[in-house]
């Protein structure tokens, strides 16, 4: 009996398919039984390559788990507070300074306006103090004076300077808790103001979160306006921020112009408190390696563009850049002709303001550290209609939904911004 060549070929193909299937089953079983390991060191290029290879299969086959953007929220504070017919002549002066960066400026302005409104005092345009002794700027070095004064029209009177007959040296200094209440003003500030006639406020921060108050108070509308409607960058600073944001979006063509901003500063990570977890296993801050692993496990593609608030590049960031090559600090995306002014030192107020505003305009914000920067950037993002503020965590498995890590400021609507916007 002759041999049918077609049957022989079919038999060989069938046998080959069974062999290949067996190999695939064994490989799948091996891969699933292999425990995922990550390199312990940071900044090691070879370790980063190993990590990238182990994580590449974990990311979704897309440009990342970007969430939809909603329309910007509308202010829902009481507009009658700006009724100029209700404006009264100032009875003395309230002065204050902006310190510690824009995340504090927002709260310092709100407290000063609330106090001045309650006392019917004239608010004097603040100076801006840097972190170093003698480092002082005038308000319009950073912020738009006209916008500030116009936005408070009908709320409080604003003067650019103290009158010549009032000496700043003779002002009584009064400490004010952040998010000061009317009861605190009446009990702790008003008696001194009535006696002295003029006071200087110094805000302190017993709490560094921006959770909304319950129940609401009469001063909430004033605080909302002051916090979200008064501070805008002056044109030169705004131009620099806009150009840097445009640059980041141009680098993000594969993700439709969207980018991630990570508040990550090495000097904070070096503090002992950042190395420890609380009783619930949560950490107060996360390392570059932990941020890289977290973002990849939540599905962000390696082509994702990331902006870091770190003042200058540090070798500890190398592992993050190895996983996400499009990772930048401000000196690599700022126009060369702007660097002499805006990058003059690593701790300048300009740099802090640039970071704050770029993070506020990002499509995804990741706070590597907790604190007021995170809280007040979150407020700006919520008001803009975006809600992808994700808090990092250690993910035990190979992947997780990014929606599981949305900040409680958003997921539980805990932020003060939800009392100010609707």
Features:
single chain; alpha/beta; Rossmann fold; 7-stranded mixed β-sheet; 4-stranded parallel β-sheet; 11 strands; 11% strand; glycosyltransferase; FucosylTrfase_pln; transferase; GDP-Fuc_O-FucTrfase
Shape category: globular
Distance between the termini: 87 Å
Residue windows where pLDDT falls under 50 for at least 5 positions: 15-63
Number of domains: 2
Q: According to CATH, what is the class of the largest domain?
A: Alpha Beta
Instruction: Describe the main β-sheet briefly.
Output: 7 strands, mixed
Number of helices: 16
Radius of gyration, Cα only, in angstroms?
27 Å
Number of strands: 11
Structural class: alpha/beta
CATH level-two architecture of the largest domain: 3-Layer(aba) Sandwich
SSE pattern: HHEHEEEHEEHEHHEHHEHEHHHEHHH
Our estimate of the beta-strand percent is 5-15%
Mean pLDDT comes to 82
Helix content: 25-40%
CATH topology of the largest domain: Rossmann fold
Can you summarize this structure?
It holds the Pfam family O-FucT. By secondary structure, this protein is an alpha/beta fold. It has helices at residues 5-33, 45-55, 102-119, 145-151, 182-196, 220-229, 235-250, 266-269, 288-297, 318-323, 330-333, 339-342, 349-361, 372-384, 408-411, 417-420; strands spanning 93-99, 122-124, 127-129, 136-137, 158-159, 172-177, 198-204, 259-263, 305-308, 327-328, 364-367.
Would you write up a description of this structure?
- The chain is of the alpha/beta class.
- It has 2 domains: 79-229, no CATH class; 235-420, Rossmann fold (3-Layer(aba) Sandwich), CATH 3.40.50.
- It contains 16 helices and 11 strands.
- The chain has helices at 5-33, 45-55, 102-119, 145-151, 182-196, 220-229, 235-250, 266-269, 288-297, 318-323, 330-333, 339-342, 349-361, 372-384, 408-411, 417-420; strands spanning 93-99, 122-124, 127-129, 136-137, 158-159, 172-177, 198-204, 259-263, 305-308, 327-328, 364-367.
- The strands form 2 sheets. Strands 1, 2, 3, 4, 5, 6 and 7 form a 7-stranded mixed β-sheet that branches. The protein has a 4-stranded parallel β-sheet with strand order 10-9-8-11.
- α3 crosses α5 (182-196) and α13 packs across α14 (372-384).
- Residues 15-63 have low confidence and may be disordered.
């Amino acid at each position: 009996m002759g041999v049918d060549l077609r049957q022989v070929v079919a038999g060989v193909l069938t046998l080959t398919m069974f062999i290949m299937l067996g190999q695939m089953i064994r490989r799948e079983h091996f891969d699933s039984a292999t425990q995922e390991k990550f390199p312990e060191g940071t900044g090691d290029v070879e370790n980063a390559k190993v990590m990238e290879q182990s994580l590449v299969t974990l990311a979704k086959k897309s440009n990342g788990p970007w969430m939809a953007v909603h329309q910007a929220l509308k202010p829902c504070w009481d507009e009658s507070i700006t009724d100029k017919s209700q404006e009264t002549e100032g009875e003395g002066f309230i002065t204050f300074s902006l310190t510690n960066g824009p995340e504090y400026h927002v709260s310092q302005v709100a407290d000063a306006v609330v106090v001045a409104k309650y006392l019917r005092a004239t608010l004097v345009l603040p100076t801006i103090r840097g972190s170093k002794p003698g480092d002082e700027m005038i308000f319009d070095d950073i912020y738009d004076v006209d916008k500030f004064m116009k936005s408070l029209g009908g709320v409080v009177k604003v003067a650019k300077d103290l009158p010549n007959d009032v000496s700043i040296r003779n002002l009584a200094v009064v400490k004010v808790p952040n998010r000061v209440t009317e009861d605190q003003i009446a009990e702790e500030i008003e008696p001194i103001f009535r006696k002295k006639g003029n006071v200087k406020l110094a805000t302190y921060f017993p709490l560094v979160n921006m959770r909304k108050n319950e129940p609401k108070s009469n001063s909430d509308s004033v605080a909302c306006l002051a916090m979200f409607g008064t501070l805008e960058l002056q044109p030169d600073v705004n131009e620099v921020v806009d150009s840097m944001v445009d640059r980041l979006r141009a680098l993000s063509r594969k993700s439709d112009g969207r980018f991630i901003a990570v508040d990550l500063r090495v000097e904070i990570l070096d503090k002992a408190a950042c190395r420890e977890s609380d009783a619930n296993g949560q950490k107060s801050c996360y390392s570059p390696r932990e941020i890289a692993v977290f973002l990849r496990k939540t599905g962000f593609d390696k082509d994702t563009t990331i902006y870091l608030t770190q003042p200058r590049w540090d070798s500890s960031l190398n592992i993050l850049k190895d996983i996400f090559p499009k990772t930048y600090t401000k000196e690599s995306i700022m126009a060369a002709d702007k660097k002499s002014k805006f990058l003059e030192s690593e701790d300048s107020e300009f740099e802090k303001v640039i970071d704050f505003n770029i993070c506020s305009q990002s499509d995804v914000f990741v706070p590597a550290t907790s604190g007021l920067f995170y809280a007040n950037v979150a407020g700006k993002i919520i008001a803009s209609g975006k809600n992808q503020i994700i808090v990092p965590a250690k993910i035990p498995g190979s992947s997780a939904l990014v929606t599981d890590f949305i900040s409680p400021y958003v997921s539980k609507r805990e932020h003060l911004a939800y009392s100010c916007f609707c």
